[in-house]
Amino acid sequence: MLMQSSLWQKVRADLLAHKARTALSIKSLTIGFFVIGTLLGMMDLQQAYLDNAHKQSQPSHISLIFRQDADVDLAEGIKRMADVAGVDVLTQFAVSYKTPGASQWQTGTVLFRPDYQQQHYDMMSLRSGNYPTGQAIAAERLTAQFAGLKLGDSIEFATADGGQQLSLQGIIRHPFVKPPTFGGQLYFFIAPELAPLFGIPAHTFRQMLVQIKPPYSADKARQIAEAIRAKMAAKGIATNVTLLQDPDRHWGWPIFSGINIVLRVMAWASLALSAVLILNTLAALITQQTEQIGIMKALGASRWTIAKIYLTEVLILSLVALLIGIPLSCLGAFYSSSWLLDLFNIELPDFAYSPHTLLVLVIGGLSAPLLAALWPIWKGAAMPVRQALASYGLGADFASQAFDRWLERAIASHLPTLYAVALGNLMRRKARLFWTQSVLIIAGVLFIVIMSLIASVNLTLDHELARSRYAVRLGFSQDQAAATVTAIAQGLPATTAIEFWGRTPAELFQNGQLIKQSGSLGIQMITLPTDTTLYQPMITEGRWFERSDNQQNHLVLNAATAELNGLKVGDSLSVKRLQHPASNWQVIGLYRSFAGAGYAVEAVYAPLSTVQQDSPTPNRHAFALLSADITTLEQEKAYKEALTSAFQQQHIKLDYYTTLAKLEQRQFAQHQFSPMTGMLLGLAIMIATVGGIGLSGTMALSVLQRTREICVLRAIGARSSAIFKLFMLEGLCHALLAWMLSVPLAYLLAEPLAKQLGLITLNIQLDFAFSWLAVGLWFVLVILLALIATYLPARNATRIAVREGLSY
Amino acid sequence: MPNIIQLSHVYKAYQLGQISNPVLHDISLTITRGEFVAIVGPSGNGKSTLLNLLTGIDRPCQGDVQVNGSHLQRLNEEQLSAWRGKHVGIVFQFFQLLPSLNILQNILLPMDFAATLNKRQRLERARYLLNLVGLHDQAQQLPGQVSGGQQQRAAIARALANDPALIVADEPTGNLDAATADAVFELFANLQQQGKTLIMVTHNESLAQAASRRIALYAGRIHEDQYLNRAG
């Protein structure tokens, strides 16, 4: 783009003489580059580090959690099995602890491995201090962060011998803990020799981590898991849970996929915004240069010469914006990824950036503004000299379209003059209006959709709880006699009814093939009385149990699993229960799983009486469901504590993971979802903020372009307050219009989007509730946003001296 | 008749980098109420600067500008806006009507800013002014829908909105054809007869000759100051 020195001078003068306009253009472009660079960089860094961290931890392919403590020698036998590449063992159990300064006991998890220096799978790596030895313990990295623990702190644990203070001497990263911010427990590590203090026999384990010989496949892993379970069962060790893990995919992948979808939407929204900013800025530049274009053309400049001048200006502006935007977006992507990955216990190095994003930014950053500028510049350069030189007035372009005339007749002519000016100005630059509105509308729709998602989560929880009429579900570490449990539970006056349920791991086959599971933690058959009054899942097809199902081989199956396998009500399945031969069962109903797919144990419901027929211990049960006279969370907590204590006195161990209190469960579920919904809401607010910046840019350009109009108003007696009000009104008109358009759009889109977001990011099937509160909140937010975005441009408008724009 | 404008030893220069570029030199001038003054002179000799000083759009470097009893250099920008709204009506060469307001609303605008009349009175006055300039049929039209001459008449009606004592016009007929220019000039003559003071910058010597006083500026000084057919 070679140019003569006089044209270079013009480029230089244009950029330097209008410093405010140049700064605004660079700011607009920089914001666009920053947001897109940050979002793309975030996606790249997340994808790269998520799977990398997963692979580095040497993930086990199969993880088996047993009901009893098994002797470590048993693991040697498993190691020798065909297709087993290696085995690690560990023990996890629930404990009560108090952190320094805490007065209440909390429930957490303690974990130990036989030798921390000899880990092969699910590697727990030391971050600071030492691995646990003797009385010294370690805390999980996220636990330490969440609870504010530091090396040297003393933590009290409830042990078989009473309270015991143990010193924190190490911080360890565990690759597969649920982050406390997502509702996960606090994790502590002890030396194996300390296990007896917690009532765990020495040289035992409760969990086995297995890697199979390559090549890995889920089916192969499932078959080997079955063989291991059988082998362990033969030694008297029952398996509670079997986990299969994809060695190439981090467990947080489904959540990150959801986040990435949201980020992608945001990147598109930002791209639209950047286009708005670029188009607005360039259209303003051309409008302001109309007279000069006319003069240059009158002097013989060709269309291409004129286009070259302005394209060069755009290129220079883009270069400067890139120089500022690239480092900012690298920092933005790094810090936001660090924060997000940290929630999943993944640390980024000191600094990381995505070369791919950098390349996209440089190529896109230089070409996109040029492409966006091409049309307004080419159109501007084509303006006839007569038209260009005759543009001294305030512009008579407003009446050129029928819509303008209609607007004036139908609305503006009935408004006070200042309001009519604001409304007219809003509609004058329709392309700018369209783009600015688009960004604000996208932000509004996202905000209402996400708020509706939160409302839907609450509604779903309410519905789910309405189907649960028990107060507490007790899960026993070992099946308990109904009479013993009834006697203890009825000793508490609040107890009104008791119901016993059972559980057994099961495998379901269709035409000889193991069926695919929608949950990754295996299938468990939950057996219950057919006349249960304390719980009934939502039946989507077929029916729930009736008395006539007693002693029948009838199943109620997860609807997602049925869909996955093409199963229908009435179909037959072969069911293989632990230590029982396979038998045929009929599907009588499908239920909707609240927990959805993914990281969950999948329940298959069956009549208790059927399973009791061939059980050696028909009157011993895994669960007791208790209803009680309880209305508040506090009452429920007290009741649960009283129950725990009563069972402890009778030396009956409750299983922490399967013992639930209904209201506490609701609170827990809400807390579990809140980081994700909070993050989505944060992203929507970020888009709204970016929309606000776009609006601010639009208003600043309005002020720049209407300098002459402001001066005319000043000349005919407008005070600063009137000028200020005029621009603030225009900003408010933008906000009101965006609000009015986003509400019906959000109403149409909220249900499908919220349900999809619920499935992707929270992994649950939602009952939908449209959030009218969000409609009200968005109104307040968008008005506030407009007031903030317009304040500075409006104030600048009041500072324009009349002589700046009026040269008669 | 009492004076409406009194300029005493006014000096104005524009700073261009390090160089001070004088535009008006020691201008002293008195204009009495009801005069119709035409300011003439070649381009770049200070006509527009003089108008800027008289309307408070610009400030002198030295000297005193007194208009309708106010010393303009003592007022700040905010006070000047309010002062202009009440005391001066400005007619621009390129009309400068707000494109998104109809003709009636454009005339209402200065009255809304001044807020000295109630809503009904403002509407009545706007309609009276539309009649005065012969635009009663165009009240609901947008500026883009009417001719240049009609726009200029609307701009004159707007300048009269708050019934100012002084009307200042910069090349008011410069953008109009001869017939329309005559009609606009006739409107000015009528206003003078109603007691308004008019100051008009023009290049049109025949129009200038029709005013009651002709001031010629040359090189920033008053070169000629002639009373022609003084009225009022």
Task: Spell out the blueprint of helices and strands.
The complex is a heterodimer of chains A (808) and B (232).
Chain A: H1 5-17, H2 19-56, E1 62-71, H3 73-79, E2 84-98, E3 106-112, E4 125-129, E5 136-140, H4 141-147, E6 154-159, E7 162-173, E8 187-189, E9 204-212, H5 218-234, E10 239-244, H6 253-288, H7 290-298, H8 303-343, H9 355-381, H10 385-389, H11 402-410, H12 417-428, H13 430-467, E11 472-481, H14 482-490, E12 495-510, E13 513-514, E14 523-528, E15 538-542, E16 554-558, H15 559-565, E17 572-577, E18 583-592, E19 602-607, H16 608-613, E20 620-628, H17 633-649, E21 660-661, H18 662-705, H19 707-715, H20 720-762, H21 772-798, H22 802-805
Parallel strand pairs in A: 3-8, 5-7, 14-19, 16-18
Antiparallel strand pairs in A: 1-9, 1-10, 2-3, 2-6, 2-9, 4-7, 5-8, 6-7, 11-20, 11-21, 12-13, 12-14, 12-17, 12-20, 15-18, 17-18
Chain B: E1 3-16, E2 19-32, E3 36-40, H1 47-54, E4 62-67, E5 70-71, H2 77-87, E6 88-91, H3 103-114, H4 119-132, H5 148-159, E7 166-170, H6 178-193, E8 197-201, H7 205-209, E9 213-218, E10 221-227
Parallel strand pairs in B: 3-8, 3-9, 6-7, 7-8
Antiparallel strand pairs in B: 1-2, 1-4, 4-5, 9-10
